[in-house]
Amino acid sequence: xxxxxxxxxxxxxxxxxxxxxxxxxxxxxxxxxxxxxxxxxxxxxxxxxxxxxxxxxxxxxxxxxxxxxxxxxxxxxxxxxxxxxxxxxxxxxxxxxxxxxxxxxxxxxxxxxxxxxxxxxxxxxxxxxxxxxxxxxxxxxxxxxxxxxxxxxxxxxxxxxxxxxxxxxxxxxxxxxxxxx
Length: 181
Hints:
The structure is a single chain. The chain contains 3 helices and 10 strands; from the N terminus they run ββββαββββαββα. The longest helix has 16 residues. A hairpin with a 2-residue loop joins strand 9 and strand 10. Strands 1, 2, 3, 4, 5, 6, 7 and 8 form an 8-stranded mixed β-sheet that branches. The protein has a domain of 112 residues: Nucleoside Triphosphate Pyrophosphohydrolase, CATH 3.90.79. Helices cover 19% and strands 36% of the residues. The protein is of the alpha+beta class.
């Protein structure tokens, strides 16, 4: 279990609330993390980006419930059947007014994603790959019509964007927990 993390610690503000699920499973490559590539959509500021399944917290909904609901909608994985490991710390967007709560789950089964129209692709990425210093780069990305040089992780899959932004920050939180407890 993840201990000492407090989701939703920020005071109420005008930021949009969102929640995501970091889903882990064992494979012959060791521990793997599920990432999705969002479908291209001109009204989505994260169009085509790598992410965890998740989305907006609806009025009256708890963030963890939103992460579980969105995961079922986007990739067809029922997290009620998974082992809940705990929350990650809440993060806020640097360019968009959003507060994101992350929750970590371990699948006891294979967990084959069934993608909805919001998701272009999914990837089970070995945690060792995400932790490898050789994969950590400074990469150019385009966001809101502008080019930015950002810290990122290059995945070992052709034609896949780099992992950066909010998801990168959540991955780095998890990596720190794995390394330092």
